[in-house]
Design brief:
Layout lengths: L1 E6 L3 H13 L1 H5 L3 E7 L3 E3 L4 H5 L9 E3 H4 L4 E11 L4 E6 L7 E4 L2 E4 L3 E2 L12 E2 L4 H13 L4 E4 L3 H11 L5 E5 L6 H6 L1 H13 L3 E4 L3 E5 L2 E4 L4 E3 L2 E4 L4 E2 L16 E2 L5 E3 L2 E3 L4 E2 L13 H19 L13 E5 L5 E5 L2 E4 H14 L4 H4 L2 H11 L12
Parallel strand pairs: 1-2, 1-8, 2-5, 8-21, 10-17, 11-12, 11-17, 12-13, 19-22
Antiparallel strand pairs: 3-4, 5-6, 6-7, 9-18, 14-15, 15-16, 20-21, 23-24, 24-25
Helix pairs in contact: 1-9
The structure holds flavin-adenine dinucleotide.
Length: about 400
């Protein structure tokens, strides 16, 4: 029997799994092939609807799918990968309790989809105090904290994720402070679509988000953060959306990496013989421009599909194919019926942008049963939602 081991329970793994299952049904049925998922989380976390969950427009359970349900033909190990040995072709892992020490698993093909983490260490005191919303526990903790803790919520980082989360938080708490080191929010979007970037700023103002541009958070302490202009914000909830650095698995450190620690892939998404990677863990070249594709769910999904196809080809003795996906665009939501979207370079706003974004996410949710519940929940909860009166922004 041959074994494909998929590391992580995110978009890359889910889509590589799907592509392999569609192509190798016979070998899987006959027991000639085994798929094993090793993931530190027991659920797939659908990050796309994080804003809706934060705003109270969706229940958290709809965005978290047990891996055993999303990938029924795989053996799922709830464990942390501790090392990959490329020479003996084994993955070492430790189960959640860690009681029995490390176990190991041999692979014929390996998919590295372990994603990235926000580099909290880059800010003094932020590690251990800042939330990142990457793992399923983070989101539950944020919801719990905003329920019980008084005072402002500070969001660090004014990219699209930080802006969307600030807007979502403004539906729950009266004072949200968004701290952005650049002189404007969503600078990357501004460079491509200035009208959409301006709309993001307008939406934040409408929602009463207290935006501080041109300043950085320099330190975090229990109950406060200090900004580079010397001001101190009293807060017990700090959310970091400050970019990413790839999860570096021991044993893979020597493979070619870029400055963000991402594994540099070939055009066929290989990083070593019989080892593929994609998503936030990898630096994947755009097929046309050759520059690394953006670290977001769309690219993780599409490259994950290609990884799965190439694994299936390798297992049936055929060479891998190049990653050819060219992209689609980006989108953000500011509440039901309010959104911005860049679709193939065409700027869209309002209901159209919002509906397009939701439609896209629904198509990629891990199970149909969850996807069909989303539109009804969104509209029902939006009708019920009480507007939060924003606190007037005060200068420090
Ligand atoms: C709050 C938030 C909102 C976002 N919103 C959007 C959006 O609206 N649109 C969009 O396109 N993108 C969005 N993104 C980005 C998108 O979610 C990521 O680009 C995408 O998740 C990358 O997929 P991945 O499979 O590479 O990694 P992930 O989905 O992060 O999965 C990584 C997996 O690896 C596991 N793992 C890590 N280390 C280990 C280990 N040592 N052992 C075992 N398992 C391990 C983790 O538990 C996890 O299951 C958002 C991200 C966040 C955090």
């Amino acid at each position: 029997m041959r074994r494909v081991v998929l590391l992580g329970g995110g978009y890359v793994t889910l889509h590589a799994y799907g592509a392999i299952v569609r192509r190798l049904r016979g070998p899987l049925r006959r027991g000639e092939l085994e798929l094993v998922v090793v993931s530190a989380d027991t659920v797939h976390n659908f990050h796309g609807f994080t804003g809706e969950v934060v705003a109270g427009l969706l229940p958290i359970g709809l965005t978290q799918t047990p891996l055993t349900e999303a990938m029924p033909r795989a053996r799922v190990l709830h464990a942390r990968v501790t090392r990959v040995d490329l020479t003996t072709r084994t993955v070492h892992y430790s189960t959640s309790d860690g009681a029995d020490g490390d176990d190991e698993l041999a692979y014929d093909a390996l998919v590295v989809g372990t994603g990235a983490r926000e580099p909290l260490d880059a800010v003094d005191g932020l590690a251990g105090r800042g939330l990142t919303l990457r793992g399923p526990g983070d989101l539950a903790e944020l919801l719990q904290r905003v329920r019980v803790v008084d005072g402002p919520v500070v969001v660090v980082g004014g990219g699209l994720a930080g802006v969307e989360l600030s807007a979502a938080l403004a539906a729950r708490v009266p004072h949200v402070v968004l701290v952005q080191s650049a002189d404007r929010v969503v600078p990357a979007l501004h460079a491509e679509q200035p009208r959409l970037a301006a709309r993001c700023a307008t939406e934040l103002a409408r929602l009463g988000v207290d935006v501080r541009t041109g300043v950085r958070v320099v330190s975090a302490r229990d109950g406060s953060v200090t900004l580079s202009d010397g001001s101190v914000l009293g807060t017990h909830v700090v959310l970091a959306t400050t970019g990413q650095s790839a999860v570096v698995l021991p044993g893979l450190e020597r493979l070619p990496r870029d400055e963000r620690g991402r594994l540099v892939t070939t055009r066929e998404l290989l990083v070593a013989p019989d080892v593929w990677s994609a998503g936030d863990a990898a630096s994947v070249a755009h097929p046309r421009s050759g520059t690394p594709v953006t670290a977001n769910a769309l690219w993780a999904i599409k490259a994950g599909d290609q990884v799965g196809r190439n694994v299936a080809r390798a297992l049936t003795g055929r060479p891998g194919r190049r990653f050819r996906y060219l992209g689609l665009g980006q989108a953000a939501s500011f509440g039901v019926g309010r959104g911005v979207a860049d679709l193939y370079g065409v700027p869209l706003t309002g209901w159209l942008a919002w509906a397009m974004r939701v439609g896209f996410f629904l198509r990629f949710m891990p199970t149909r049963s969850r996807a069909v519940q989303v539109p009804g929940e969104l509209l029902r909860r939006a009708r019920r939602a009480e507007p939060v009166r924003p606190r007037v922004a005060v200068a420090p």
